[in-house]
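Re: beginner question about structure tokens

> Can someone show what the tokenized structure looks like for a real chain? I only ever see the sequence side.

Sure, here's an example I had lying around. Input first:
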Amino acid sequence: MGTSSSSYSPKTVYLDVDGKMQKVIFSRYCSPCDIRELLCSSSNIARNTAISLVNSEGALISIDPTMPTNTPNSQYKVMPQSTGQVGDKEDMFQNVLSQVAEQFSRAFRINELKTEVTNRLAMLEKRVELEGLKMVEIEKCKNDLRKLRDEMTSKGGGRVTCGCKYSFTEDGKKLSPRRDVPNYPKYTLSQETIEALKKPTFDVWHWEHNEMLSCLEYMYHDLGLVKEFNMNPITLKRWLLGIQENYRNNPFHNFRHCFCVSQMMYGMIHLCNLQERLTMTDMCILMTAAVCHDLDHPGYNNTYQINAHTELAVRYNDISPLENHHCAVAFQIISMPECNIFANIETEAFKHLRQAIITLILATDMARHGEILDSFKQNVDNFDFTNQKHVTCLKLVLIKCCDISNEVRPTEVAEPWLDCLLEEYFMQSDREKSEGLPVASFMDRDKVTKPTAQIGFIKFVLIPMFETVMKLFPQIEEIMVQPLRDSRDHYEELKQIDDAMTEAQKKKTESKSLGGKKK
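And the corresponding structure tokens:
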């Protein structure tokens, strides 16, 4: 393809191991797991031990190829997370508090539950103060927890659970949440990672779920959405984890795909200077729709839902059943007070945001591709950023671009996504065959190859759409459109090779057949 990642020299970090300095060198091509094993080995810690990396000030450092380097005078320390030794006072306090909280969770007595909530309040207040948040945000956290305590008291006891995952399986069962109180570690993003997040070349395969959550949280802060919509930062964390919990472990339509689409949207906002041309409300609609666009995807597309008469198809009258379901799950998560990132905006403003986010998510149904692209083509030559209809049309095309943008990325990032997509396609076609349902040829493992799967899609869907967007934003040609053209050429070359091999095999078979007849 036309783009590739920049080359990096090996990185060096310095560790404090029992008071002695240990120098560790690794390549950017190392995976986070390889780096963890290297750190364990350098620190005389058993392999596969859960560890964290902290700097001289005690801040957590993300263990990945883009982690910031240090100097011999500012050594990092590797901390085993499962150690039984007493660390500093703060670690001891956290360990004791965790043990006490675990005992309380088993007790189911109201007085003990009140104590647990009080402890959580104290921990949250301390965290907020340490991060230097404004006093008004601290008060919001306090008020949220006071309401939670009052609600628990009025109910008279028992652990409060939240129905943050409300989705319909084919059997019509509601799915319950996997945990009560969302929480994930705070990662320090390096400047290198921050800059890479703004580019379509970002490698989404290097990151674990907690790290992707931190990146999404950073995007909302960086775009000014937290400040503009008066979001409680703790609620933002809860909401993001609620989102992650409601993506299934499908080969393709999973939380990593959600992050991939959201990161591409964030990158296009920067690349196309949309912050200068659209409103903050538009930014929020674009990002939130991208995050929520495939929530609770079951791994089987709309065609299967309709042909198999699933509950989703019946519920939504065969009209974009999956996309309607994604919207429903998205706003059920937001309807929970502890996950409502829009709790502090006016009712009318929320109605507008809700309707706009739904409109964008529904636009990701590929059955509407031609309709949406044709509408944008009619406006692009005389586009007016003050015309709300024009802007809405642009937002629909932007989320479509981001949703199917894998081939824009470097080959080493894009090709694994194709493998995941084909795996999901084959699972569906196998099921359709077993149930006697129609099977699309592009999903049939007996008919499709990588080149045949991609050539038509790139030539007739991706390139025309991105070239139309390029008329409005010429700066995307080199970094987004040219990689698509290169990808098309790449798969056409592969198809020629496949065809030549098939023809050679055919001639060889015919030759053997003729030879047998002569004998």
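Each token stands for a local structural state, so reading them left to right follows the chain. The chain has three domains: 11-81, 91-154, 196-501.
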